[in-house]
Amino acid sequence: MSEENVEIVRLGYERWEQLGRPDYEFLDPEIEWRGPREFPDLAEPHFGHEGVGRYLDKVNEAFEDYRMIPEEFIDAGADQVLVFSREGGRGRGSGAEVKTNPTAHLWTLRDGKAVLMQSCWERSEALEAAGLEE
Description:
- The chain is an alpha+beta fold.
- It has helices spanning 2-19, 40-43, 48-62, 123-129; strands at 27-34, 46-47, 67-77, 80-90, 97-99, 103-110, 113-120.
């Protein structure tokens, strides 16, 4: 099941790239979506598809073309998939290209759907949350 979960998450990122937004078929209707704790307005949990939409609305206030680019998919066991990624886009207003430091997303899946997404500003924090070592 773990390799299957990695493929489900990988497809979720591919669909996001194609659609320009998350593919809600990949997300459980009651998903809990948590942004990085370093950004209090994003860190509070957002619930369900509407909550994910509100989260992305907040992100898009800062970016004209927000992008989340996966770099590595890791089977973290226990129905979890860890994704090392880079995020960025063009700054709204300034037009400046912005790239974040290497970030991570820890996904928890149940019955082929994502039920939790935790974004971590530091990859080491995500590894710890997944119970993995660097």
